[in-house]
Amino acid sequence: MQFSSHLTVGAVTALVSVKAGWIGLESLDILAVLLGCMLPDIDHPHSALGRRLKVLSVPISKVFGHRGITHSLLIIAGGMWLLLYKLQAPPGWVTGLALGYFSHLAADFMTVAGIPLLWPWRQRFCFPLPIRTGSLSEHLIVALLVASSVTWTACGNQRCQPVLLELQMAVAQFSAGTPK
User: Fold this and answer.
1) CA distance linking residue 131 with residue 116, whole number of Å
2) 135-144: which pairs have CB atoms within 8 A and are 24 or more residues apart?
3) DSSP letter at 115?
4) What is the DSSP string of 119-164?
């Protein structure tokens, strides 16, 4: 997916994560989600993060290539272990970073190129109906994700039902040619 899509998915992940109670409203937790959603593309020297950190990006790219080790569950597990147990980073920050990272992997999982989720096994996994990066499908999926997440966040579980029922009735009446 494109950088703008990853950043949007990361922002939605932060919003949903705060609402679900997985992270707090602390700015570092939210920034960790946003950093995490960009971090897997450190393996691409021309990515937004890769251009700023060429000292890391170029060697990672040469050794592993794009969508190699940085697009695997191994990095999430190893990174969380390192941050929590060796560096003793704050748990909310580590959770935010992992959630953002996972959002990036989930988004790239939906693309034609897929991801090597179980690296070092090089098999790439992708959604059964993959989309092309930069396509209209990508933008529609991101827009639907934003709309559904904002609705869920704003309404909550039970409070949305009356709003959604009203919306459903209005759509049905409009389809029948009798607007409310």
Assistant:
1) 17
2) 138/1, 138/2, 138/5, 138/111, 139/5, 141/110, 142/1, 142/5, 142/8, 142/9
3) B
4) TTS---B--SS-B-TTSHHHHHHHHHHHHHHHHHHHH-SSTHHHHH
Q: What is the mean pLDDT of each run of 10 residues along the chain (180 residues)?
A: 93 91 88 96 93 94 92 93 94 94 96 93 91 91 90 69 63 59
Backbone angles phi, psi at 50, to 5 degrees: -60, -35
Residue closest to 96 by CA, chosen among 84, 112, 111:
84
CB contact set of 180 (below 8 Å; sequence gap of 6+): 169, 170, 173, 174
Which residues is 111 bridged to in the sheet? 131
pTM above 0.85, yes or no: no
Rounded Cα distance between 100 and 31, Å, is: 9
16's tokens:
């949903």
Compute the distance between CA of residue 161 and CA of residue 136 in angstroms, rounded to an integer: 30
